[in-house]
Structures are given as C-alpha cells and as structure tokens.
C-alpha cells in the first residue's frame, strides 16, 4: 500500500476562472470569422467536394474542442515564468492571426488558392508554436497536437477543394 501523500494541489478558484476565460476568449476569437463568413453560400454549395469531406456538423464541434484545448494551452504558457514564454506567446498570436484569416479568404473572397497559402503558413506557425510551447510547458505543447493534426487535415481538404474546382 502506498502511503505517500501527494504534494500536488488543485488549482485555486481564481486560476480556474482565468483558465476558463482563456478558453472563452480563444473560442470567441476563433469562432468570429465563421460567423462573419458563412460557408452556407451558393458558391460553396456548388463546389465539388472530395470523398473525405466531413459532415457539416463536424466543423463546429471539432473547432470548439480544439479552441478549448488551445485556450488551456495558452493559459498554461501565460502563467509560466519559464524562458521562452514571450516567444511562445508571440508565435501563438501569429498562428491565431493566420487561423482567423483563413475563413474570410476562403469563403468571403471565394479564393481557395489564397486560402491554401494561408493554411500552409498557419501549419508552419502551429509547428513553431508547438515547439516553443514545449520549451515552456510540455502539457501545453501536447494540447496543441490535435490542433496540428486538424490543420494538417484541413490543408489537405483545402488543397483538394482547390484542385477539384480549379
């Protein structure tokens, strides 16, 4: 029988509230372009879709989960005093700018090739952010891995939408 007492404490209420604030902030920032640039347009409906195009409901569900993970990861890095914290936060901000820019480029401008360039840059900045987060907090980096996987999938999907409709 293990009789050791754990020295890990649960976070205090204020820390939990701040973490929830980060999650809400990232969901609002990440979701805003989807509200302003709806995929429900005649142009988008007319596009040929690849066989692996997910059901429409998958997008808000996946993005909400991913933005929530990003919010927690950002909170972990933000509260750290580790070296590299500023770089990690800066890279996070840059990758979010590219994330937010993709939706209007694709849906509002109806420019899949421009959007492909944006998502490829996003992918590179997400990789950089994962590496930078890992230097600050490995848990934060791990929370970004599903996001990187989804951005990879989204880039392939974007490419196929462009290729099939060029």
TrEMBL record:
Matches recorded under Gene3D superfamilies: TspO/MBR protein
Membrane topology reported for the UniProt record: Multi-pass membrane protein
Transmembrane segments: 16-37, 57-78, 87-107, 113-133, 140-159
Localization: Membrane
GO biological process, one term: tetrapyrrole metabolic process
Primary localization: membrane
Name listed for the protein in its UniProt record: Tryptophan-rich sensory protein
Lineage of the species this protein comes from: Archaea, Methanobacteriati, Methanobacteriota, Stenosarchaea group, Halobacteria
């Amino acid at each position: 029988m293990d009789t050791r007492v754990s020295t890990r404490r649960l976070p205090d209420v204020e820390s939990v509230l701040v973490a929830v604030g980060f999650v809400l902030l990232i969901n609002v920032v990440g979701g805003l372009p989807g509200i302003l640039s709806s995929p429900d347009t005649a142009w988008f409906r007319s596009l040929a879709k690849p066989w692996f195009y997910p059901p429409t409901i998958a997008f808000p569900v996946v993005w909400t989960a991913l933005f929530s993970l990003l919010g927690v990861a950002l909170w972990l890095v933000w509260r750290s005093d580790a070296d590299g914290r500023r770089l990690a936060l800066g890279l996070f901000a840059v990758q979010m700018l590219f994330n937010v820019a993709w939706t209007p480029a694709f849906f509002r401008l109806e420019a899949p090739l421009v959007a492909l360039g944006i998502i490829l840059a996003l992918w590179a900045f997400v990789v950089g952010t994962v590496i930078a987060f890992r230097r600050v907090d490995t848990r934060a980096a791990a929370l970004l891995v599903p996001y990187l996987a989804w951005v990879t999938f989204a880039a392939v999907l974007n490419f196929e939408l462009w290729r099939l409709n060029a």
